[in-house]
Amino acid sequence: MSGITALAELLASMNPILIDDEFVFCTVPGSLAQYLELAPVASFVEAEGLTLVVSKAAALKANLSFDGAFRQITLTVHSSLAAVGLTAAVSTQLASKGISANVIAAFYHDHIFVPAANAEAALSAIQELSA
């Protein structure tokens, strides 16, 4: 498996970037193919339905229900899917500041979705881990 596995190296080089757009989590019936025009950044099939992470604008345009808006912070370090502790370190740091975190690990990077109102504070908190 490629990517960095050493926690100290991951924390020192994660270089978090706050994405400009706002995102929402929605649950919908049917298959992903029915929602591709919404350009979801993530999806997950659960027993209760299909979860989509889409831009807030796309959800509003499609009249999808959602609770809360989130901003995405991408950790630009190429973390291995086998790395231990990165998600725990980031979520613990955010929890210590009273900020919720919804983490999605993709092949190259980890992406943390935080409440839009707390995005700047979350970015600062994550940057503290690299110091």
Q: How would you describe this structure in keywords?
A:
131 residues, alpha+beta, VC0802-like, 6-stranded antiparallel sheet, globular, Transporter, ACT-like_dom_sf, DUF2241
How would you summarize what this structure contains?
By secondary structure, the chain is of the alpha+beta class. The chain has 4 helices and 6 strands.
Report, as a whole number of angstroms, the end-to-end distance.
27 Å
Alpha-beta content class: alpha+beta
Counted by DSSP, the helix tally is 4
What does the oligomeric state look like here? single chain
Kindly provide the radius of gyration, computed on alpha-carbon positions and rounded to a whole number of angstroms: 15 Å
> What string, H for helix and E for strand, traces the elements in order?
HEEEHEHEEH
The CATH superfamily name is: VC0802-like
Flag low-confidence runs.
none
At the first level of CATH, what is the class? Alpha Beta
Q: What is the domain tally? A: 1
Percent of sequence in beta strands: 25-35%
Largest sheet at a glance? Answer: 6 strands, antiparallel
Mean pLDDT, all residues: 91
Question: If you had to describe this structure to a student in words, what would you say it looks like?
Answer:
The protein is an alpha+beta fold and 131 residues long. It has a single domain (2-130), classed as VC0802-like, CATH 3.30.2130. It has four helices and six strands. It has helices at 7-12, 56-61, 86-96, 119-130, and strands spanning 16-28, 42-46, 49-55, 70-75, 102-105, 110-115. A six-stranded antiparallel sheet has the order 2-3-1-4-6-5. A hairpin with a 2-residue loop joins strand 2 (42-46) and strand 3 (49-55). The two termini are 27 Å apart. The relative contact order is 0.24.
